[in-house]
Each structure stands twice: as structure tokens, then as C-alpha cells.
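Project outcomes to date are best conveyed with an example. Our students and postdoctoral researchers have been running inverse folding experiments weekly, and each run begins with a structure described purely in C-alpha cells. The record below, which covers 180 residues, was selected by the lab manager from last quarter's runs and is presented without edits.
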């Protein structure tokens, strides 16, 4: 009886620790994106207005490349800030308890085997438009990501690409809950 209580307590601790570590990963990503947003906000409110002012002082704006460059940069910064804010909002809405522990989802590491060639490939599913994709990272919104999400070990998926159609069998899965 005591061992069962210890096991349940240990399992609860393991789940809580896992959830805590996953929350830290998400919080770190939020911090990184927030810092980029702050830098861009400073550029938009301080640096670019100064550059535009200097370019205006040069005279004729129709043929002023500095002015055009500053306006283009301003549009880019505004667009990127919009993306960052949207991404931060989505990160805030993530409920780790809603991510399945036995199916491919956000944070999963998946090993697939090509049924034709027998080659194995590993993928880590990352959030939407991640800024820095590392080797093997794929967005959940990419063709391979969309094909794998919600699938389990043993399932065969069909990945349709413009040049080829591949049949991939999921041979290993480590979810965000296991990763901690």
C-alpha cells in the first residue's frame, strides 16, 4: 500500500515537473520574442523617424533613396511587430494539458521511416512561424507538420509534395510531456 502511494505521488510529481519544464520552455520563447518586439518598437519609434527626418532634409523626396529605404524599413518593422504580437498572443493561449501525450503535437519529436527507401528521419514539431529553425525542426503548419499532427506510433501517413508522394511510418514518438 505504501509503495502504491509513493508511486502515485512520484507520478504526480513527474507530471507536475514535466509541465513546469514545458512552461519554462514556452516562457523562454515568449521572453525572446518580447525582446525582439522591444528592439523593433524602439527602431520604429526612435531610429526610423530620425532617418526619415534626415532624408526629408535632403530635399526632393521623389528621387530620395534614403527616404524610400527608411519608409520600406518602417513598413517591414511594422509587419514584423504585428507577427510577433500575434505569436506572443498564441503562445499565451497554449494549454499544455490539451496537447495529447500519445499523439504527434507541438513539441513532439517524431522518427519516421520511408516505406520505399527504408530511410529514417527525425523531426521536431515547433510552433507556427518559428524564427530560427534548427536541423530537423519543422513547423506544425508545414506540409510534413500537418501530415504528422494527431498521428500515433505505427500509423503510416501519406506526404504529398509537389514533386513526389511519400509514405512514412511513424516508428518513434516523444511528446512534449515526455521531453522534460
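After processing, the design step wrote out the following sequence:
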Amino acid at each position: 500500500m505504501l509503495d502504491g502511494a509513493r508511486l502515485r505521488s512520484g507520478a504526480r510529481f513527474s507530471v507536475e515537473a514535466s509541465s513546469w519544464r514545458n512552461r519554462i520552455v514556452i516562457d523562454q520563447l515568449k521572453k525572446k520574442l518580447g525582446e525582439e518586439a522591444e528592439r523593433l518598437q524602439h527602431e520604429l519609434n526612435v531610429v526610423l523617424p530620425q532617418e526619415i527626418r534626415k532624408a526629408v532634409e535632403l530635399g526632393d523626396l521623389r528621387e530620395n533613396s534614403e527616404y524610400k529605404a527608411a519608409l520600406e524599413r518602417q513598413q517591414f518593422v511594422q509587419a514584423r511587430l504585428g507577427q510577433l504580437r500575434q505569436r506572443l498572443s498564441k503562445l499565451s493561449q497554449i494549454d499544455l494539458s490539451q496537447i495529447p501525450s500519445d499523439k504527434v503535437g507541438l513539441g513532439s519529436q517524431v522518427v519516421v521511416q520511408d516505406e520505399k527507401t527504408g530511410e529514417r528521419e527525425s523531426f521536431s514539431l515547433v510552433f507556427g512561424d518559428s524564427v530560427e529553425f534548427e536541423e530537423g525542426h519543422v513547423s506544425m503548419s508545414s506540409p510534413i507538420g500537418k501530415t504528422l499532427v494527431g498521428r500515433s506510433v505505427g500509423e503510416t501517413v501519406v506526404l504529398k509534395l509537389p514533386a513526389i508522394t511519400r509514405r512514412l511510418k511513424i516508428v518513434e514518438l516523444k511528446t512534449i510531456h515526455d521531453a522534460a
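Helices lie at 2-57, 65-92, 143-148, 176-179. The longest strand covers residues 165-174. The training component of this project remains on track.
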